[in-house]
Structure formats: C-alpha cells, structure tokens
Amino acid sequence: MLRGMSAVEEIKQACATRLTVAERSELTSWLRDFDDDWDRQIEADVTAGKLDKLFAEADAEFEAGRCREL
C-alpha cells in the first residue's frame, strides 16, 4: 500500500491507470457477484433466526425513544 493511501484509494488508482476497459469490466462483474453472495448469506441468517436478537434489541431501543430518524 502506498504511504497515506487507503486500500480503496489504491484500487481506484489501479483502475484508473493500469486496468484495461475489459479488466475493469471483469472486476465490476466480480464485485457484483461478491455482493450477491453476501446478500444471500444475510438472507439465510435472517431466515435461520440468527439476527432475531439484534432485531429485538433495535425494536426495544426504538420503543424506548433512543433512536432518531435518518
């Protein structure tokens, strides 16, 4: 990693200066698939009840008035 540059900034720099259009397209496709995998895992966790405790805590915080609108 370049000094003072975040990993994201380094990737952006590589995309802008070193990747061909075809390579950028391949990277975009890979990132989209990666996001889809992550979304499917979250959906599976919700269905399996793994997030129920977090949902209940969020509901309790809201009902107690400790939330603000975004």
Describe this structure in words.
The protein is mainly α. The chain has one domain. It is elongated. 71% of the residues lie in helices and 0% in strands. The model has no long low-confidence stretch (mean pLDDT 88).
Q: Percent of residues in helical segments? A: over 70%
Largest sheet: none
The arrangement of helices and strands along the chain is HHH
Number of separate helices: 3
Distance between the terminal alpha carbons, to the nearest Å? 35 Å
Q: Tell me, what's the shape? A: elongated
Query: What is the count of β-strands?
Result: 0
Number of domains: 1
> Stretches where pLDDT falls below 50 for ≥5 residues?
none
> In angstroms, what is the radius of gyration?
19 Å
Based on secondary structure, the structural category is: mainly alpha
Chain-averaged pLDDT: 88
The fraction of residues in strands falls at under 5%
Summarize the structure.
The protein has 70 residues and is mainly α.
Annotation keywords:
70 residues; 3 helices; mainly alpha
